[in-house]
């Protein structure tokens, strides 16, 4: 991919690239919709990701081109005018990152040209947006020799989502894409940002990624709605409890005080946040002692909670996960990422991968009317120079 990209770069910009980088996508093993509730998440970076090449310019112009969005064409803007523009489409993600980097680093006093190309399927909830954010930061860091730490860039990526794009997401995606390590998942405590690398080894089992291929719609607004439902449930609980986030509660404490939350829907949302956080800690323990069956059960329970209490699955994700759960040799399956559309994951015996794909495809086509896709990819490092 890089060779072809270099040629394309030269034909687009008439100069050779100075620097190049790769940023992965991610899956989340378990711990869904817990990262803005002060809970644990358990994601891993994947080998699908975004590649980028860049060179500095003499003037203040920034030019961005994506091989994935050729119809959008070249996006250009001035270093001094870094506001969100709807017509800048995908380029708003790098633009947001550039804006916050310029605010933090006075060394960025010239423009630059960037070419990107990714192989993360679009809208598949594998974090193509956080991938391009971190990639942009790593390219600009190299171009200007910035003293930019990974954690600072991770926060700039999250700020881009929250303030530039208007999605109130947590820190999980940027964190794993910034800090990932090959063959490891990260158990991250989003309340403190303490984290631990955990070998993502499942014996004879592998993670299969299953894509609904459903076009995303309204994901952002529903996401923000879930987040504010949780915040409102938290403030009801705070009438009696001295807590700062739902992540501080055990299920037992939650059950004792849940009637402080008057609204049924908000109570269910909070229940998911608390129970999912407990499941994530249990899944970490199960994996530490190679109890893959237990790990699989927790994946199933996570999906059920996201379906019934958090209501972020939908028929496509349910069909994938629930069909996979019935296949022989599958220990567990659940949706991954924000939900509504995108991907599910299954923990499947390596000899049963074909059976999983056949059975899930048949059922999915019968029920939904079009095909799902499957990916088997390794666990990758976080953003890096290549
Ligand atoms: C999206 C967000 C993350 C996280 C997940 C759900 O991927 O970007 O911060 O909230 O959804 O777990």
From TrEMBL:
Residues covered by the GHMP kinase C-terminal domain: 285-365
A Pfam family of this chain: GHMP_kinases_N
Family: Belongs to the GHMP kinase family. GalK subfamily.
Top-level taxon of the source organism: Bacteria
Residues engaged in binding Mg(2+): 129, 161
Site (Transition state stabilizer): 26
Sequence positions that bind substrate: 32-35, 223
EC number assigned by the record: 2.7.1.6
Active site: 173 (proton acceptor)
Top EC class for this record: transferase
Domain named Galactokinase N-terminal: residues: 7-53
Coiled-coil residue windows: none
Domain GHMP kinase N-terminal residues, every copy: 92-180
GO molecular-function term, one example from the UniProt record: ATP binding
Protein name per UniProt: Galactokinase
Alphabetized Gene3D superfamilies for the sequence: 3.30.230.10, GHMP kinase, C-terminal domain (3.30.70.890)
Keywords on record: ATP-binding, Carbohydrate metabolism, Cytoplasm, Galactose metabolism, Kinase, Magnesium, Metal-binding, Nucleotide-binding, Transferase
Annotated GO biological process: galactose metabolic process
Keyword Electron transport assigned: no
Main location: cytoplasm
Residues engaged in binding ATP: 66, 123-129
Compartments, record wording: Cytoplasm
Organism: Staphylococcus ureilyticus (Staphylococcus cohnii subsp. urealyticus)
InterPro entries cross-referenced by the UniProt entry: Galactokinase (IPR000705), Galactokinase_bac (IPR022963), Galactokinase_CS (IPR019741), GalKase_N (IPR019539), GHMP_kinase_C_dom (IPR013750), GHMP_kinase_C_sf (IPR036554), GHMP_kinase_N_dom (IPR006204), Mevalonate/galactokinase (IPR006206)
Catalytic activity, as annotated: alpha-D-galactose + ATP = alpha-D-galactose 1-phosphate + ADP + H(+)
GO cellular component, one term: cytosol
């Amino acid at each position: 991919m890089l060779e072809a990209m270099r040629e394309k770069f030269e034909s687009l910009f008439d100069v050779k690239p100075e620097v190049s980088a790769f940023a992965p996508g991610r899956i989340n093993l378990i711990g869904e919709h817990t990262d803005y509730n002060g809970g644990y998440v358990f994601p891993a970076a994947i080998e699908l990701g975004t590649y980028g090449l860049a060179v500095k310019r003499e003037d203040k112009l920034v030019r961005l081109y994506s091989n994935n969005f050729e119809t959008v064409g070249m996006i250009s803007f001035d270093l001094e005018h870094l506001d969100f523009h709807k017509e800048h489409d995908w380029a708003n993600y790098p633009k947001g990152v550039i804006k916050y980097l310029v605010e933090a680093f006075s060394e960025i006093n010239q423009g630059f040209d960037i070419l990107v190309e990714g192989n993360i399927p679009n809208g598949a909830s594998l974090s193509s947006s956080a991938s391009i954010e971190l990639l942009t930061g790593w390219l600009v860091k190299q171009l200007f020799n910035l003293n930019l730490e990974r954690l600072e860039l991770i926060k700039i990526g999250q700020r881009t989502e929250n303030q530039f794009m208007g999605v109130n997401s947590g820190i999980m995606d940027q964190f794993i894409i910034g800090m990932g390590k090959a063959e490891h998942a990260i158990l991250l405590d989003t309340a403190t940002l303490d984290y631990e690398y955990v070998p993502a080894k499942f014996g004879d089992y592998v993670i299969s990624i299953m894509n609904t291929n459903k076009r995303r719609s309204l994901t952002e607004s529903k996401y923000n709605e879930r987040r504010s439902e949780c915040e409102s449930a938290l403030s009801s609980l705070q009438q009696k409890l001295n807590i700062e986030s739902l992540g501080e509660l055990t299920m037992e404490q939650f059950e004792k005080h849940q009637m402080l939350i008057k609204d049924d829907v908000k109570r269910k949302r909070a229940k998911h946040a608390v129970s999912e956080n407990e499941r994530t800690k249990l899944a970490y323990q199960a994996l530490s002692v190679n109890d893959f069956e237990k790990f699989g059960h927790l994946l199933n329970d996570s999906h059920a909670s996201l379906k019934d209490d958090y209501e972020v699955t939908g028929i496509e994700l349910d069909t994938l996960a629930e069909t996979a759960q019935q296949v022989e040799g599958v220990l567990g399956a659940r949706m991954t990422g924000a939900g509504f559309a995108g991907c599910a994951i299954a923990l499947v015996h390596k000899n049963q991968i074909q059976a999983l794909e056949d059975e899930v495809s048949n059922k999915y086509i019968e029920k939904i009317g079009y095909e799902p896709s499957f990916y088997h990819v390794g666990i990758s490092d976080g953003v890096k120079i290549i």
